[in-house]
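Please go through this protein, sequence plus structure tokens, and consider how the sequence yields the tokens. Keep your notes short.
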Amino acid sequence: MSENLNKCDIGFVGLGVMGKNLVLNLADNGYKIAAFDLDLEKVSAVIEQDKNETNNGEPRVVGCSSYTELLAQLKAPHLIVLSVPAGDIVDQVCQNLIGAGIQRDDIVIDTGNSLWTDTVEREAKYKDDFLFFSSAVSGGEVGARFGPALMPSGSPYAWTRVKPIWSAIAAKVDAATGKPLERSQPGQVIENGDPCADYIGPAGAGHYVKMVHNGIEYADMQLICEAYHVLREGLQLGCDEIANIFEGWNQGVLDSYLMEISVEVLRHKDVETQTHLVDLILDKAGQKGTGLWTAVSSLEVGCPSPTISQAVYARSISSFKELRKHTSTVLSAPEFTPLCESEKELFIEQLHDALYCSKICTYAQGFQLMKLASVEHNWQLNFASIAKIWRAGCIIRAAFLQSITDAFEREQQLDNLLVDSFFSEQLSSYQQNWRKAVAQCTLMGIPIGAISASLSYYDSMRCATLPANLLQGQRDYFGAHTFERIDQPAGHKFHVEWTSADRPIIKL
């Protein structure tokens, strides 16, 4: 169409940290962007950065001062990306776009951390006004700039229009090895490799998968922090010593982005005091809610996720700083004889294995949760594809994810990663050191809620018989909740008149 000549390919609303970097990523990949933000200084800033990165060549980003101007700058049908905070502001932007004249065949993509149920409601709410599509984004500002992991969901037709763009800007992995192909310079483009972006499913599915990703992220971070705490307080190691240990771990099965950045955080020193900065950071952890959403969803779906839930609890406990300071003067610590040097070396190896096994359990919980949600909502999620998306670009990217991809490619209907041949063998090989590490940490009196919850999860999952038989007896005693019997067909319910002299059993 002649009216589309010289117009922009993509409209973009929201130029905060993530938005600005996504705009520049899109520009690197050959797209011309019409950019808008209520804060016009942010519009000017992204235009200026674009000019600097292209050596004042032809502008790749056009600034807009209103929603009407934004639509006027775009080729038809319009494609508009939102990078705004989750919640009411998404609807405010959508209403403003409707007022500016957006058309029914136009696509609006929400890339924020929206609650997945809100996404489902919005697709239905705006179906007569435009195509509301969503795409969760992971990778932080660096990922947004040089290649994030993208989890799109919604209209299959909308995906056909979005796919070439998302495939271009996503992180890439080597198709043969599954290793990330790094991009770290403005203007750099990786044309080969598998993109860490694939269609997840109907509306809400992508944001649900991203929610679980964040729940796993919470747990993975907490596991690393517990290992740090044990090494710092239990073995009295310095930050640089722990960083060296983590760096060594990062060369093997624990190779991950989170382990990598933990090394950098531990080594960083405050410029003024030359003290390790981590020792100056107040031990109160923040959270934006996605880990909590994951824990709540696991309870609603009926999927055990104790490691993820414990990670959320750990952040909550950290917020009670003043109370913890007080109780530390009231509650006594156990008596403990410090380890000798040879014992320390062995214990560090045991702690490594405990961290690895706990990580396996964390991902097992996350993928089982997605599987149960997929059945409940009829999403038909492809778990091998999801694991592939997470191999690069996202916060939980790790070499470990290739093994998860392989597991689901071996068995698409795998109920739980723990029963995959590779992971069950890994757990069997390392479990003794895992148990010894948990026992030693308990004797030291150092909290390892996520690591110990993972071990309890593993032991519960490998038990053919759990004490729920007694629990059902208790429930039937006080509430007549009934029970099934192992010597009777499944589904047949029974009740006992527990307080009766002869205690008759009633079949219901």
The domain at 2-203 is CATH 3.40.50.720 (Rossmann fold).
